[in-house]
């Protein structure tokens, strides 16, 4: 499961659609609708919020907004607790840098146009998150 801390505009089509599916899985876990992935470390940042379902709903809303901007139709009725992303969950600059490098490697393999765009851009966080100085997040388990 990869719930990108990066702004969804940085993701290619495959990354955006995969993130949508994986975020719906995260929502199912947080709502108790599935037994799998209950202890997935990427869910920690949502669980720390007063309303984890609203937090993941805001995350999904941000993904859906980007999808709509591109002309894709992600089903809003799949979001159990829709909310506008409000830039309130901190994410470290180290985490963003790690994810940015990981995304760059993925794009280089599967989407030349997106990889070229990646080279010209700088990482920015998903609208739910606010960047703070720091190392890679303690919940990150990927060895990239």
Q: What would a concise description of this structure say?
A:
This protein is 47% helix and 6% strand. The chain has helices spanning 13-30, 44-47, 52-69, 93-110, 112-120, and strands spanning 89-92, 129-132. Strands 1-2 form a two-stranded parallel ribbon.
Mean pLDDT: 95
Q: Helical residue percent?
A: 40-55%
Total domains, how many?
1
Strand tally, please?
A: 2
- The ordered string of helix (H) and strand (E) elements is HHHEHHE
The main sheet comes to: 2 strands, parallel
Overall shape: it is: globular
- What ranges have pLDDT less than 50 throughout 5 or more consecutive residues? none
Strand order of the largest sheet: 1-2
Estimate what percentage of residues fall within beta strands: 5-15%
Features:
144 residues, mainly alpha, two-stranded parallel sheet
Description:
By secondary structure, the chain is mainly alpha-helical. It has one domain. It has 5 helices and 2 strands, in the order αααβααβ. The protein has helices at residues 13-30, 44-47, 52-69, 93-110, 112-120, and strands at 89-92, 129-132. The chain has a two-stranded parallel sheet with strand order 1-2. It is globular, with a radius of gyration of 14 Å. The two termini are 14 Å apart.
């Amino acid at each position: 499961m990869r719930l990108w801390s990066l702004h969804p505009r940085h993701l290619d089509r495959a990354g955006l659609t995969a993130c949508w599916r994986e975020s719906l899985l995260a929502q199912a876990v947080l709502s108790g609708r599935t037994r799998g992935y209950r202890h997935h470390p990427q869910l920690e940042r949502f669980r720390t919020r007063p309303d984890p379902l609203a937090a993941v709903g805001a995350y999904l809303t941000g993904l859906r907004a980007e999808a709509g901007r591109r002309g894709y139709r992600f089903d809003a009725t799949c979001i159990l607790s829709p909310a506008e992303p409000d830039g309130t969950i901190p994410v470290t600059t180290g985490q963003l840098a790690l994810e940015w490098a990981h995304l760059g490697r993925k794009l280089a393999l599967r989407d030349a146009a997106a990889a070229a765009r990646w080279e010209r851009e700088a990482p920015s966080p998903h609208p739910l998150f606010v960047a703070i100085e720091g190392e890679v997040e303690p919940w990150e388990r990927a060895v990239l």
